[in-house]
UniProtKB/TrEMBL annotation:
<keyword id="KW-0732">Signal</keyword>
<protein>
    <submittedName>
        <fullName>Isoaspartyl peptidase/L-asparaginase</fullName>
    </submittedName>
</protein>
<feature type="signal peptide">
    <location>
        <begin position="1"/>
        <end position="25"/>
    </location>
</feature>
<dbReference type="InterPro" id="IPR029055">
    <property type="entry name" value="Ntn_hydrolases_N"/>
</dbReference>
<dbReference type="InterPro" id="IPR000246">
    <property type="entry name" value="Peptidase_T2"/>
</dbReference>
<dbReference type="Pfam" id="PF01112">
    <property type="entry name" value="Asparaginase_2"/>
</dbReference>
Amino acid sequence: MHKLTRAVTGTAALFAIAVAAPAGAQEEAPRWSIAIHGGAGTIRREDMTAERDAAYRAALKAALDAGAKVLAEGGSALDAIEAAILLMEDDPKFNAGRGAVYTWEGEHELDASIMDGRDRDAGAVAGVTGIRHPILLARKVMTDSPHVMLAGEGAEQFAAEQGIETMPPEWFDTEARREALERMKADKLSALDVDIKFGTVGAVALDRDGNLAAGTSTGGMTGKRWGRIGDAPIIGAGTYADNRACAVSATGWGEFFIRLGVAKDICTRLTFRSQIRGGAPFDEGVELTDAESQQEIDAVIADVGQLGGDGGVIVLTPEGHALYAMNTAGMYRGRATSTGESEVAIYADEE
Ligand code: ASP
């Protein structure tokens, strides 16, 4: 069977870049690359204090640096995204692990998923309680179970068998999230009215071996009930990684991301576009320019918007270019590469 390969080296690639990309449009390909997000939503400058803005930037930078360190030392994309997500799961500023939003019943039900772009192996957990690091449990599902997704009590039983760390309910409690639930109940609001941001966390990485990985972790949406599960643990909706296409982690109004299969849709569009540019034979994709990739990603987020949904994605191409798209006022995010790039951003209009 043919493996679709990107002609990123050799004359084919040089030709493709020379004819298709305006001079200087594509930078030198990084040996490793990572991008993270800490949720998208109504994050406006006018609602932020300087302290809060700085605290989020510092937290994003810490997570980004943790992932970048793994990659710089030759570690795998999977280990890098895990390192970044672990920090954000422990940080109450984000809606994942500690700091997760409350369910209608005042509990925390956590969702997470992880995907390995090498072989598209994947693991996910949905609606688990008491797990300090849902991303570690998702990874265990991938590596130590014959399944892709485990939910609720069964997932917790599996976690216990695997020696995954648990925490008492108070560990996950935060005042701001509790107030959000109370406000929602008192004023009969929706999760969108009370959450000025979503706060899910995610990461995508490319390692020196050319492998992509993606992971996402969340507490879901405030006031969720009836065992509601969002897009974050759903492979193809909130998370996707395929070495031949891209790595994606999403954040936003999960129902829309599930309905559109956002993460997989982005990867499929990038694959098709790269194959069309490559011409026949169809199994030879070429490197897309960032502008071309961005068009495809924007089209998917526009589709989310057309249905009435909102949110954003971080996307990493097989060449290590990190791209963002969102239809919200902001998305906590950051990216770093082996070529020295390292930046964090919050508002949609920031580069
Ligand atoms: N996508 C998540 C969900 O719907 C929420 C978020 O991104 O914060 O569960």
